[in-house]
Amino acid sequence: MKQIISIIVPIYNEEGNILILYNELLSITDLISNKYDFEFIFVNDGSRDASWALLNEIASKDVRIKALKFSRNFGHQMALTAGYDIAEGDAIITMDADMQDPPKLILEMIQKWEEGSKIVYARRIDRKDTFMKKLTANLYYKFLDLISDVKIPRNVGDFRLIDQKVLKSLNRCREKARYFRGMVAWTGFPHTFIDFARPNRTAGATGYTWKKMFRLAFDGMTSFSMFPLKVAAYVGLFVIATGSAMFLYISFDALINQTNYPLFKWLVTVIYIFMGVQFILLWFIGEYIGRIHDQQKERPLYIIADKLNLERENVLDPLDVR
Ligand code: UDP
Ligand code: MG
After folding, report:
1. Which residues are CB-neighbours of 315 under 8 A, at least 6 positions away?
2. How many domains does the chain divide into?
3. Cα gap 25→95, rounded to integer Å
4. CA of 293 to the centre of ligand 1 (A)
5. Is residue 123 within 8 Å of residue 59, measured between CB atoms?
6. Going by CA atoms, what residue is nearest to atom 8 of ligand 1?
7. Cα–Cα 20 to 30 A to 83, which of 38, 163, 222, 247?
8. Under 8 Å CB-to-CB from 289, ≥6 apart: which residues?
9. What confidence tens digit (pLDDT) does each residue in 49-78 have?
10. Cα Rg for the chain, rounded, in angstroms?
11. Is the CA virtual torsion 77, 197, 135, 14 positive or negative?
12. Is 84 a residue whose pLDDT tops 90?
């Protein structure tokens, strides 16, 4: 039995790219078709152009093509989710439809996978994006790196290969706010990188509006960091510390130097300190909400990478039970 490789491609108004990509994929995968079988999974994420008609056309000639059509636009990460849910491959590759993720890298990815990497990321060393996109992406990744609980690789998009083991763990994460770059890193399997220069898209326009990009950025931050909740604690501590210092100062000044402070100055100081107390209480509530948030993500509690002298039946393996 040949091993299967799944290739998942989210499609949002990509009528100008589908055939170019498909032909390229065919010529690349043909090179190793003696070793592997391929399935091409296209997820049409509510395209409003001829994308679905094109997919119909190529799927009728090639049974290896599996296509899903969303009822509306659910977003890139949801399209990836649907693809992951139906993928049957031993290794699963996700890539964009617009040729910004060069199909020829697939061969290198598979090679790294054969060498034992469970996750192979394609890393952009040179982004051909606008200055603003480069700048915001850079700042965001730096910030996320600083605050997040798992190490999320830099300059890595959703062009990657994952092993079936990683897929099974991922598919057990049913959180609604999905940020796969973080989720894949969270599974903790060994990974490697392939560097590439990211070209411009061949046809059409980006489906990532600023709104969608901000949502993705926020999903990344809130799913992998409790830092925003802890801000209240830092503000509270700062306010209480400065307020107390102020209170001590005017108290001593009044007692020792007999300075006469009007009532409103005392009041301002006391109210300021209690504002700090409120921030601390807000942080307490935040910690509880953080725990609820963590719970509702329903991620597996742990992931088993390997086992010795244990049959499948007698080990509680999160990859086997749901
Ligand atoms: N995409 C999608 N749903 C969306 C937006 C984009 O499925 O709401 C797909 C799109 O067809 C492409 C991939 O996600 O295959 C990456 O999108 P795009 O190229 O527009 O993003 P960019 O490369 O500009 O970040
Ligand atoms: Mg693109």
Report:
1. 304, 307
2. 2
3. 11
4. 28
5. no
6. 75
7. 222
8. 229
9. 999 999 999 999 999 999 999 999 999 999
10. 26
11. negative
12. yes
Residues linked to residue 41 through DSSP beta bridges, in sequence order: 8, 66
Whether the pTM exceeds 0.85: the reply is yes
**Is the model more confident about 196 or about 127?**
196
97 domain residue, yes or no:
yes
The answer to whether position 214 is within a domain reads no
Instruction: Write the residue with the smallest CA distance to atom 5 of ligand 1.
Output: 207
Tokens of 322: 């749901």
Ligand 1 touching residue 208 (CB < 6 A): yes
Whether 26 and 172 share a structural domain = yes
Ligand lying nearest the CA atom of residue 205: 1
Strands across the sheet containing 91-94: 65-69, 36-44, 3-11, 91-94, 156-163, 119-127, 191-198
Whole-number Å distance between alpha carbons of 270 and 246: 9
Q: Which ligand is nearest to the CA of 216?
A: 1
Q: What CA–CA distance (Å, rounded) separates 218 from 109? A: 29
